[in-house]
Amino acid sequence: MTGVDKLHARNLTGKGVRVAIVDGGLDYLHPALGAGFGPGYRVEYGWDFVGDNVKPPNKAQPDNDPFGDCSNHATHTAGILFANDGEGNTGFKGVAPGVTVEHYRVFDCNGMSTGNVVVDAVNKAYERGVDIINLSLGSGSRPFSDDPLSTLVSRINREGKTFIVTVSGNSGHAGTFGAAAPEGGGDDLFGVGSVDAAYKYSVYQPATIIVDGAFSKDLSYNPETWTAHRRSEFPARVEVLALSGNSTSDSDGCTGVNNSRLPRDALVLLQRGGCTLKTKMENLARAGVKYTLIYNNVDGPAFDLEVRLDEGLQIEGAASLTKADGEDLLSLLAKGHKVEVEMDSNFTRQPILSSTPNTKTGGKVSTFTTWGPSGEGKLLTSVLAPGGGILSTFPRKNGGFGIQSGSSMAVPYVAGVLALLGEAHPDVPIKQLASVLAMTARPLKFNDGTNRSYEFLSSPWQQGSGLIDASAALAVLNSGVKTSTTRLAFNDTEFGQKTLSLHLRNEIPARITYDISVAQGPGLLALNETTRAPVPFAAAVRAAEAAAEFLATVRPDLQANVTTSLNRLVLDPGQETDIEVTVDTTSLGPLEQRCPLYGGWVHLTSSSGPNDHSLSIPYAGIGCRIKYNEVLDPAFTYLSSATRNDVETARFWNRKLEPIDQGHVFKLHKDRRPFDPANPDKERFSSETLPALQIQLQMDTRGIRAELLPVGGGKPVEIFPPEIGSRVGGWGRVETVHLVWDGRLPNGSFTDSGNYVVRIRTLRLFGDERKEADWRDEVISSKFRLEYEGQLINIDSPDHAGLIEILPCF
Question: What residue stretches are annotated with the C5a peptidase/Subtilisin-like protease SBT2-like Fn3-like domain (predicted)?
Fold first, then answer.
C-alpha cells in the first residue's frame, strides 16, 4: 500500500538513523523490541521524566530508565517503528527495524503529563542530536501556533537538524475546524493523518479447557482491547458458568443480571447479540461480575471486542470466542461437567496472529482523521499513513501483541519511512526527505466510513498530500529535484493571499521537463445553514460513518478557479524557478454564509528522461470572511454549580454540566487557600459546589472573557486573569471548556456578597482583541447570589494556571 516492501527489498532497514520516541513507558524487554535497554540494544538510550504516577498530590520521579508496561500506547507505537520478532517467532517486523532508538517517557500510568515535561523531553532529544523525533501525542484543544509545544516543534523543524513527525489528530467526527496542538502549529509542522489498514488483524491468546479436572482441548480467545481504559487480565485458571444456568441466548445480559448465583471469581459465558456489547458488559459489572467470555452468534472468527464502560464500572477480564468454541463450552456445562479454562494470565505462550482482507475501508482515509483548517487557516495534515486497525507490539504482560487505531499509529510509520530514506540518502537532511515524501504522496478518494465508493477525492483539508509512497519518494530523491514548498494555504477571503508560489530546483546534470496541471478536490459547505456552526462528520463522537447532514455538504462541483503561471516547465541543470498559483473565489461568493472550503492539488509530471516521476502539492482555502462567523454556542454555554471533581469528570469524558436555576445561591468559603493542583485533596474531592462556567465554542478563539455583573447595575469585573482567558494556543471548538471560579478575583481578593450574573464573551476567530466589536459574541448567565462563610486568609495572588494534562491519541 505504501511501497515499504520495495525499500525492504533493497535491504534498507533504517540503519544509521537515530529516532527518539516521546511517549509513555516502553516495555523494551519485549523480544521483538530487542529484549533490553542500553548500549548494544535496540533502545540505546532513554529517560523517564514522570514515573508511574504524577497525579496530584504525587510528584514526578524522573530517572534514566524509560521502562513501563502499565499502558499499551508507547510499546505499540515503538513496534510499528522498529519491531523485529524474527522468523522463529511471529515474524512481525516494523517499518525500520534497523534504526537506533532513544525513548523518552512523558506519561505516567494514568496517561497524565504536563506541557513542560513534553517540551523538556523534545528539547533533550534535540540537544542529543537525534535525526527524527516521533511525537504521537496531542495537548488538548489548542489550535493556534503560539502553543508552547507547537512553537518548539515548528522551530526545530524550521532549523532542519532534527525533524519532528507529529499527529494530525483523531477528531474527525467533529467535522471541519477540528485542530488542536501540536497539529495546529503552522507551516513547519509535519502532521500525519491515518488510512485504515489493508487487512483486518486479530490477536488470539491460547487457552486450555479443563473438564472435571482433566485436560480437554486447546482453544484461542480474542482478548478485549479496552475496558475502563485498561487491558483485560484473567486468573491463571478460572471456572466457567453460563449466565442462565446451562443455557444461554443472545438476550442474556441485556437486562439486569441476578448475581445471587454467580461467584465473583467465575468466568461468565454469554452470547453476542440482543443488545450492545456495552450494555451487556455494564450489566455484568453492576452485578459484580469480574470476568466474561462473549461468544459470537454467527460463524467466523472471534470478533474484536472494543468497549469503553461508563465511569465507575469495570470488568477485569473480557474476551470474545468463536461461535463454535462458545457452543462447545455451553454443551459441556449442559451435561453437568465442571468446566475451567487456563487463560495463560502471564501470556507465556506465543499469541496467534491472523489477518483477513479489509474489504470495507482498507486503504481508505480513516474517518477519525482530523479535518482542518487550523485556528490560523492552515492545513493540518501533511501526509497519510496506515493508522487504523494496526497490529503491533503490546507489553508482554498484556499479551505481547494487539491492535490499536489512531493518528498516533501513523506517525511511527512515517518516521520509519523517513529512516529508510535516510539510510539510502544519508547526506540529505530529513527535512528534505519529508518534503519529497509529501510531494510524492497519492491523494485518495473520499471515504464515508462504509463500503460505498466515491469517484471524487477527499479534500486536502483532511488528507493533505495523500497516502505516502516510499518507493516513489526514493525515485524522486534519485532524480535530484528539490523544493521548499509542500503545501499552499490561501486562508480566508479577507486576510488571505490571491497568489502563492512553488519553488523548484534541478540538482541533477540533466534537463527536466514538467507538465503542470491542477486537480480540484470537492468543496465543503463548512457551516450549518441555520446554526452557522461547523457541520459534524458523524452523529456521535466515536461513530465511524458520515452523517447524512455532512454528506450533503460535500460538493464535488463546488470549486474555486485555480490557475498556474506555467503549463510547462523546463529546468536545466542547477536552474531554479517559481511557479505562481492564483485563486479566484468569485464563484463561491453566493454561498459565503455556509463558509465553503475549497482545495486541490497542483500536479507536476516529468516525462523527460529515465527518472520520470510525478509531484503533487496540495492547496486549500476558505471561501468566506472567518471573522463574520459566530464563536459561542448559546445552547450549551452557561453557569453551572459543580464540585471540582464534577468538572474534572466532565472534562475527561467530554460531558455537559447542568445550568443553574434562576436565583441559585452559592455559599463559598473564604477560610481556605486557593486551589493548588499539587495539593488538591481538600478541594478537588470535597462536596463544596462552586460556580463553574461551561463554554461551548462553535469556532476556535484566542480569547474568552468572563465578567461578573452586579444585578441592578455596576461595573463589570473580569473573574479570570488574562493567562486563562487568552491562554497561549487559544481555545478549540472540539472540546467543551470548563472553568471553575471560587469567588476570588485576579488580584486575590474576594468579590462582595450579592446578586450577580456572569457575562461570557469570546473573541471572533481572526478578530483583534483590542477591538470591542470583535468580542461581540456573548451569553448572560442566570441570576445567582454569592454568600461567604469563614474568615479571610491573607494570600498572594492565586495561581489559576494549574496542570496541563496531555493525553496520547488512541
Answer: 541-619
